[in-house]
């Protein structure tokens, strides 16, 4: 099986490296030479190509790209990879994109005789490097089963049903997590007004119903004024925006998440986009 991989950055890189470590032949395209070298350096079965079109020989092409636009520009339209991929090949889309975009890509791929699988990722690059990344897989079950051995090499696969469901799981996860973080930031600001030390407040809240993943992980960073990017604020803004757009397209009005979206917009506009998403704290209550 020949595998192609487009985008070997923070999330795509670990998955591509796992495939190479497992002995799969992997052709890699990325705009960053550093990312390419870091990936092909783990084994002899990885090789870089100069243009995305050279992946047309692949049986399976993975894409892991920052924005829906990047996926569309790479795969779709007159100059997209779908035009040159083999009939019967499969496109596995790993990026965080909206269901509407994914479904349009799947329809275009089907018109060209190409299978489409949406496979969004649930945790961090560190989990991905250890092949412990939750993978929310959507699409035709027979098609996804045909790649079962490949998926087991790169993470922890779970078939969630439709392509839309795969996109939604990741967007819902990030919307809930980032809204929790905005609420935590509000709580810390309220504690400061009451004269509470941030670290003491977090310690006290840990034994209450206020406790959350974001409190455990990002609360101490906020208390220490540590805003070094782990998951960038602009990336969080992109995901919450996509999630809210998804909900609106389905006729849902998610008030709390829309309010969180405004906080992330304000923080980005204030120049905190390259900091960690916990920098939303700087936009709260000011």
**What's the story with the biggest beta sheet?**
8 strands, mixed
Number of domains: 2
Helix share bin = 40-55%
Can you tell me the CATH architecture of the largest domain? 3-Layer(aba) Sandwich
Q: How confident is the prediction overall: mean pLDDT?
A: 96
The rounded Rg comes to 20 Å
Notes on the structure:
This protein is an alpha/beta fold and about 290 residues long. The chain folds into two domains: about 160 residues, 3-Layer(aba) Sandwich (Rossmann fold), CATH 3.40.50; about 120 residues, Orthogonal Bundle (N-(1-d-carboxylethyl)-l-norvaline Dehydrogenase, domain 2), CATH 1.10.1040.10. Helix 1 runs parallel beside helix 2. The longest helix is centred in the middle third of the chain and has 31 residues.
For the structure shown, list the relevant keywords:
286 residues; 8-stranded mixed beta sheet; 49% helix; elongated
Quick structural summary:
49% of the residues lie in helices and 14% in strands.
SSE arrangement:
Elements: E1 2-6, H1 12-21, E2 25-29, H2 33-40, E3 46-48, E4 60-63, H3 68-75, E5 90-93, H4 99-111, E6 115-121, H5 125-129, E7 134-138, H6 141-145, H7 148-154, E8 156-161, H8 163-193, H9 198-205, H10 213-223, H11 233-249, H12 255-272
Parallel strand pairs: 1-2, 1-4, 2-3, 4-5, 5-6, 7-8
Antiparallel strand pairs: 6-7
Helix pairs in contact: 1-2, 4-8, 8-10, 8-11, 8-12, 11-12
């Amino acid at each position: 099986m020949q595998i192609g991989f487009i985008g070997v950055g923070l999330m795509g890189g670990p998955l591509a490296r796992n495939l190479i470590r497992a002995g799969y032949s992997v052709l890699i395209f990325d705009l960053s030479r550093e990312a390419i070298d870091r990936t092909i350096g783990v084994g002899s079965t990885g090789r870089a190509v100069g243009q995305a079109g050279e992946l047309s020989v692949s049986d399976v092409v993975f894409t892991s790209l920052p924005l829906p636009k990047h996926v569309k520009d790479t795969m779709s339209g007159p100059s997209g990879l779908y035009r040159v991929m083999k009939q019967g090949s499969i496109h596995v889309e790993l990026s965080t994109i909206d269901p509407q975009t994914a479904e349009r890509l799947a329809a275009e791929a089907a018109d060209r005789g190409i299978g489409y699988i949406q496979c969004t990722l649930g945790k961090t690059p560190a989990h991905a490097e250890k092949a412990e990344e939750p993978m929310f897989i959507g699409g035709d079950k027979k098609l996804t089963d045909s790649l079962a051995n490949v998926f087991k090499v790169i993470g922890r696969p779970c078939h969630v049903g439709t392509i839309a469901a795969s996109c939604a799981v990741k967007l819902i996860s990030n919307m809930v997590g980032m809204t929790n973080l905005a609420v935590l930031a509000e709580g810390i600001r309220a504690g400061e007004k009451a004269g509470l030390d941030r670290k003491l407040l977090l310690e006290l809240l840990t034994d209450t119903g206020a406790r959350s993943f974001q409190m455990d992980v990002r609360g101490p960073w906020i208390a220490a004024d540590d805003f070094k990017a782990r998951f960038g604020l602009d990336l969080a803004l992109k995901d919450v925006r996509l999630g809210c757009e998804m909900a609106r397209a389905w006729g849902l009005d998610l008030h709390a998440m829309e309010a969180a979206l405004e906080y992330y917009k304000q923080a980005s506009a204030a120049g905190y986009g390259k900091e960690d998403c916990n920098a939303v704290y700087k936009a709260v209550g000011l």
